[in-house]
Specification:
The protein is built from eight helices and 13 strands. The protein is of the alpha+beta class. A four-stranded antiparallel β-sheet has the order 11-12-10-13, covered by helices on one side. It has a three-stranded antiparallel β-sheet with strand order 1-2-5, with helices on one face. A three-stranded antiparallel β-sheet has the order 3-4-9, with no helix packed on it. The longest helix is centred in the N-terminal third of the chain and has 20 residues. The relative contact order is 0.08. About 20% of the residues have low confidence. This is CCDC81-like prokaryotic HU domain-containing protein. InterPro entries: HU-CCDC81_bac_1, HU-CCDC81_bac_2.
């Protein structure tokens, strides 16, 4: 039974970046971006062309498996078919013949006995397969010279007045140059201080210190935040504090309710080897808005995080991922549920 091995080589190049032929080398496809041929006035689509790498003579198993599956052969039988095919190619090449591999190119040996491949320039990029070259004729543009404006000569009086004005300005700058330089330096120093060293929290924001959510939490709600954590308390004198404590202390009662059971916020610890991504939803200056958004993130089944950014609080979603496709999927979900401008920051 005659088996056309070259047909399976062409099929595998559409599915893989390289296919090794035991005893010959590897056929490797390389991506070529779209190009403009100025000589032929054509726009060529992106493509994947094939080259021969004689340093890859080891069998990668792709060709053997494809032949075995196509003809219901065992692995040993398929390997024997490929060995016979390679031996026939070697005999023909050693005799000076040029061997054609259908849809791939032609193999030949030069005067030094080195094996080469002349590619048929078949496009193995399935994403751009079938796109033809587009003819784009050269557009001839005529240079348009701008019209020269005719300027009326200035009168002697105008010239004299203008010269006097610039003379006065020049003399003033020469006499007061140190004032101008000093003012510029003051403005520069103040600007740098405001941008890089002014970390004072905005007193009108009403924010107290924000607790950073633990990094090892995965979709576990921390419970409701107490209201007294959201209010900035006014300082009181030592005497007034004792009076307030004694006045506000309730009398003991038999009907007093037992204290609420403390909420367990323990969660499985994330392994250090796991990859963690952060998607920022936004920056907020109001603690109440931060609390509502964190609870909403838990309600939607995500793991939130918060961290300080100067006088603002950054709120977002954190999760463990295995590949970039999972990161993009979570980013689309966060943009759909919370904020279209959400983005991955880490």
């Amino acid at each position: 039974m005659q088996i056309r091995v070259d047909k399976y080589i062409q099929e595998l190049l559409y599915e893989n970046d390289s296919v090794n032929i035991p005893g010959l080398g590897g056929l490797v496809t390389e991506y070529q971006p779209a190009q403009i041929d100025h000589v032929q006035a054509k726009i060529l689509p992106p493509a994947r062309d094939v080259t021969l790498n004689t340093n890859l003579p080891i069998d990668d198993g792709l060709l053997t498996q494809r032949v075995a599956d196509a003809h219901q052969l065992s692995g040993l039988e398929a390997e024997q078919v490929i060995r016979d095919y390679v031996e026939s190619l070697q005999d023909a090449l050693n005799s000076g013949e040029i061997i054609a591999i259908e849809g791939v190119g032609r193999l030949y040996k030069n005067h030094s006995g080195e094996l080469h491949l002349m590619s048929d320039h078949n496009n193995f990029d399935t994403a751009a397969y079938g796109l033809p070259a587009v003819t784009s004729p050269v557009i001839q543009r005529q240079e348009i010279k701008p019209a020269t404006a005719v300027v009326a000569p200035a009168t002697a009086a105008t010239t004299k007045d203008g010269a006097d004005t610039w003379t006065v300005i020049s003399d003033w700058f020469q006499q007061n140059l140190w004032i101008v330089v000093s003012a510029a330096m003051v403005v520069f120093v103040v600007t740098v201080w405001l941008l890089f060293f002014n970390d004072t929290q905005d007193p009108t924001s009403g924010l107290s210190e924000v607790k950073e959510l633990p990094e090892d939490r995965v979709n576990v709600s921390p419970g409701d935040i107490e209201d007294d954590e959201l209010v900035m308390e006014e300082p009181t004198a030592p005497g007034e504090e004792d009076n307030n404590l004694s006045a506000e202390e309730p009398a003991p009662s038999d009907n007093s309710t037992p204290p609420e059971e403390e909420l367990d916020t323990e969660s499985p610890t994330i392994s250090p080897e796991q990859n963690v991504a952060l998607i920022r939803i936004g920056l907020f200056g109001d603690r109440g808005n931060v609390t509502k958004l964190v609870q909403k993130i838990y309600d939607e089944g995500f793991e939130p995080y918060t961290r300080e950014k100067g006088s603002l609080i950054e709120v977002g979603v954190q999760f463990v991922y295995d590949d970039q496709q999972e990161v993009r999927a979570n980013l689309r979900a966060v943009q759909k549920k919370f904020e279209e401008k959400a983005k991955v920051v880490e």
